[in-house]
Amino acid sequence: MTMTRLELVCPAGTPATLRAAVQAGADAVYCGFRDETNARNFPGLNFSRDELAEGVRFAHDHGSKVLVAINTFARVDDVDIWKKAADAAAESGADAIIAADFAVLDHVAKNHSQIRLHLSVQAAAATPEAIGFYAAQFGIRRVVLPRVLSLQEIAALNRAIDVETEAFVFGGLCVMIEGRCYLSSYATGKSPNLNGVCSPPQMVSYDEEPGGTTARLSGFTIDRYERGQPVGYPTLCKGKFKADGRTSHLFEDPVSLNAGGMIAGLKAAGVTALKIEGRQRGKGYVSEVVRAFRKAVDAVEKGGEPLDIGRLLAGQSEGARQTAGAYEKKWR
Amino acid sequence: MRPPNAEPMLPGLFRQLFPAVAGLPLGPLLTLSLRSLARRRPGLFERLGESRSACFGIDPVDLAFAFRVVPEGQRSSVRVVSKDEAARSDVQIKGPLLTLLGLLDGTLDGDAMFFSRVISISGRTEAVLALRNTIEDAELRPADLLGLHGILARCVDTGVLGALSIARRLADKNPSGAREA
Ligand code: SF4
Fold it and tell me: Could you tell me the pTM of the whole model?
């Protein structure tokens, strides 16, 4: 079990957000290239090769690391796109590549042994056997844990493996075991794991109708809002659907993860790094969340009372419901 | 306190000044400033990707006119148009002028403004998202739009941002009164 200082890993969708996250106290920032090689391939987001190199310089000058997500799955006739992205990440001087596909892991292990390999959450590796396989084959140094494990399971896992673990603590939740959701592919033809985008904005429409606003994805109604009521992004699994004559959030309530109260527990369970989700979020949001978690992690590291993250982030939750997710799982 | 989706409308004094502004060649001036920005910071427009050629209808609800913007780098164009014409663009963004300016200079968060309905958006969602992310990263100051440098730039930034913040405070203090003005 590792007892080093917890590392705070923060999202950056643009160079400006990377700088904001570093200045707010991120130990590491993760980001991706502006193409389908990363799982947040949204319009206007992500980094060019030059921007990444500049971002790495900025982060290193301020004592932070940069982790590059090349974490979608390569296509059989286009593996080179993913390999070239890995080459560019290595050239930029970044500290780690986060990958899930065997082709990318293998390419990095064979050609860029100087850069750390982190296993992406997209690989959904949650057993000592699976993680051991990736460690033996590709020399991964860290695994990003799927958001389906309880604290007890994480502790047991950490006792059985000798690579670091990184756990999500804040942000949007993907309810499926990562990498295994077909909802977006079914409705839009675009897959989070192949094209890097779930519920793509190209297929989103907000239609003003007599009763209010209807949010649609690829023509499917995902949710309806009364006039003046706050609207949400129509992510498929968070939508309201009719089944058996009843309208409900059929797959998942639109809640987001907040495990701010579990930092000490995650540390005790042997976790090395805490990850904040949200590469699609703006710099104001990222700065505020990173600052709050910086304070909370520092308080835990000093052995003090845990801070109330909910209170620190009152301005950001805007009434949205939050959950500690599977970390305090009571079912099974 | 203002309810979350109440609109901080332009205070009466400012709104009365605007018909005069509308008489200025606002479209050509903004076109020039956008093109010169593209010359100085081409990377900014690359971030828009395919949405560079989209036509954005920007409709400040507290003004009598609207804008049609095509942010195509050095071929960018801005036209002052009627509200009806703006509504026929690929993307329509509607909201109080102070909010729209706040989004441009990064004072306000686009997501929060949209999801709480202070601004309304329709049309090509991917183009809106690309524009929002581009503006987020651009960290534009008023002087950037005017192509100013050095001390002059700092003075203009302080002056314009100061004036906007005063206007916002006035609007915040008395939103209903401002709306009637
Ligand atoms: S639809 Fe939901 S569960 Fe599926 S990939 Fe998207 S966010 Fe995850």
Answer: 0.87
